[in-house]
Structure formats: C-alpha cells, structure tokens
Amino acid sequence: MNFSKRILAPIVFAWMLATAGMAAVAYTAAPEAPPVGEVAGARIAIGDIQVGERGNQTRIAFLCDGACILEKREADAFYLSGVDASFILDLSRRSKRVQSLRAIPQGEGSMLRIRTDAVIDHTRVKRCTVGGRDAACLDLFFVAATQKNPPAPSKRIKPVQQASTSSAAAPQPAKPVLREGAPERFKRFAQLAAPERLSPPAGVILAKVQPIEPTVVVRKPAIRKSQPLVEPVKIDFTERVKTLLDKDLSSAFCNNAAAALQADAWALGAMVDVGLCAAARGDVVQGDVTLARLLEYTPDNYEALVGRALIAEQAKEKGVARKYFQDALNSLPPIEESNRIVQAMAALE
User: Fold this and answer.
1) What's the CATH number where 58 sits?
2) What's the pLDDT tens digit per position in 87-110?
3) Is residue 203 part of a domain?
4) pLDDT under 50 in the chain at which residues?
5) Distance from C-alpha of 152 to C-alpha of 166, rounded to nearest angstrom
6) pTM given for the model
7) 265: domain range?
8) What CATH number should be reported for the domain holding residue 243?
C-alpha cells in the first residue's frame, strides 16, 4: 500500500507539469484575435462607420476618436492616415452597390479597399459632419444603371368558364361576343379610310361644286371726279422778279441787256438780266443755265440766286427754292431786298 502511493505521487506530479505546459503552449500559439470591425493597436480608434445612399451617390462616413484624414490613392483604394485598423465589413445589407469594405494596416495608417457590384463614375473625399461629430467622408458616385432585361409582359390569364348548374343548356351564340363579323368590322373601320376610297354620304355637296372660300370679286378702283377745292395759283415769273428785285422785264429792258452782254462778255449785271429774261419768255432751261454759269464766277450774286429760286418755285420745287433764297440771304443783299426774300421764303410754307 505504501509502495503504490510512492509510485503514484511522481506520476501525478508529472501529469500536472505536462498539463500546465500544454496550456502555456496553447495560449502562445492562439492569441485572441480582435473582432471584425475593431481597430487592432490603433493610435486613433474608429468610433463608428455609417453608410448612406441617395440616388446614384453612396457615402461612407468614418467617425474617429481623433483627427483621421482620408486620402484617395486609386480608383477603389483609399488611405486613412492616423488609424492602424484591420477589418472586413460586409455592407451588402446596408448598401445597394457596395458589397464590402476592407482595412489593411500600412505605414502610419490603413489602406481601405472597396468592392462594389456597380460601375463607379468618380469619387470624392472630404470632411463632413455626421450627427454633430466631425467625420471623414467618402462619396462614391456610380453610373446610372440601365435596364438590361426588361420585365416580360404579363401573361393574360384566361377566365375559367364555370359549368352551368342548370339542367337546361344555355343557347350558344353564333359568333364571339367581343368580335364582330366581317361586314360589321369593315363598316366600323371604313370611316377611318382615305376620303378618295369612299363615296360621299347622301346630301353632301362636294368641295368642287361648293368651294369653301367665297369667290373673290375683282372691282375696279373708283375714280373721283370732284375737283379740288382750291385751284393752284400760277406763278407770274415777271411779276415775281418785279416784286423781289425791282426789275421790269420788258422787251426794251431785255434787248438792252442782250446788247450790253454782246458788247462786254464780263458784264455780270447784264448776264443776270439776260438769264431772267430767258426764263420770263418761257425758256426756263436756258435762263437757269445762264444764271448757274454766272454763279460759278460770283457765288455771292444774290440776284442770280433769287432768279434760280424763282425758277425752282415755278417748277414746284419748294425745297430747292428755299435753299436758293437762303443762299441769297447769306450773300447780304440790301435791307429792302432781304425783307422781300424773307417774305418769299415764308410764302413757301
């Protein structure tokens, strides 16, 4: 009995040592792993990650305990500096387009990888506020999805015809209720055919017989036979010259003027009288040419200007007559002649 105790004691001691060693080895080989989504040994911890969507935009907000900065590295890779995190988040239940978010420690931060089932158009990172807290936001803008496979048209369910409970059989129609026979169908839709394919209804007059627009009656313009109320006043050129220039264009006066000009070609006064006499006897063109030639040598000859103004007044050219009268006034004639020229201009109105 004592022998057995001596033998069992070392065995029990050895078993206790072996058990303790196995426990130590098991603890060293399999340390407790951090749960998914929890920062492992991070300098700045991530307090929360929130996901929101609106239209074609998905926003992932990182709410850190400190100032974490989000940077864009690649199309689907982003760098969260200041955070040493390692996790994989399944976002398929929170987002329609983003499947998962993975964080891998790298350098002084963590590299974020995003996997989506839609095409990303562009991305944007910025600081934002979520619930009154500062956060680093990642905005993903996706391409608008097009409907690849349109839904198949719903099959029309035929109504089930119930059997009649009555013993007597109901009379069957000769043709379907919802469909017309050939004659009725053609009658109904013939109204939509082209007009030339139909005969006009009874009692309707064709457009060729009764036009839509009334016939245009061409009438000749009415000729007014009534005479004007005021007869035009005929201008007596000789009398007008007598009034304005105080010259009597008699036959003797005109003959003396012609003789004086024949004797001296530079007799300018005689040239004015010759031009006035020509216009007075009806040769208006020759008189105007003579006065115009004189004005080429002496542009300030007011008698020649008044003569041309009277010729224009006789031809009903009031604007031209007014211009020559004004030029005559600018040539500074005597006071009496100036007053008469002003009265002649006023009479043109």
Assistant:
1) 2.60.40
2) 898 988 888 889 899 999 988 889
3) no
4) 1-42, 163-164, 166, 177-178, 180, 189-193, 197
5) 41
6) 0.36
7) 237-347
8) 1.25.40.10
Residue 322 lies in a domain: yes
Domain-ending residue, one of 125, 142, 159: 142
- 265, two tokens: 């070609």
The verdict on residue 163 lying in a domain is no
Whether 109 and 96 have beta carbons less than 8 Å apart is answered as no
Number of domains the chain is built from: 2
Say if 1 falls within a structural domain: no
Each residue's pLDDT tens digit, 38-76 = 334 447 888 888 898 888 889 999 888 888 888 988 877
Q: Give the residue from 112, 142, 172 where a domain finishes.
A: 142
The three state secondary structure string of the chain is: CHHHHHHHHHHHHHHHHHHHHHHHHHHHHCCCCCCCCCCCCCCCCEEEEEEEEECCEEEEEEEECCCCEEEECCCCEEEEECCCCCEEEECCCCCCCEEEEEEEEECCEEEEEEEECCCEEEEEEEEEEECCEEEEEEEEEECCCCCCCCCCCCCCCCCCCCCCCCCCCCCCCCCCCCCCCHHHHHHHHHHHCCHHHCCCCCCCCCCCCCCCCCCCCCCCCCCCCCCCCCCCCCCCHHHHHHHHHCCCCCHHHHHHHHHHHHHCCCCHHHHHHHHHHHHHCCCHHHHHHHHHHHHHHCCCCHHHHHHHHHHHHHCCCHHHHHHHHHHHHHCCCCHHHHHHHHHHHHHCC
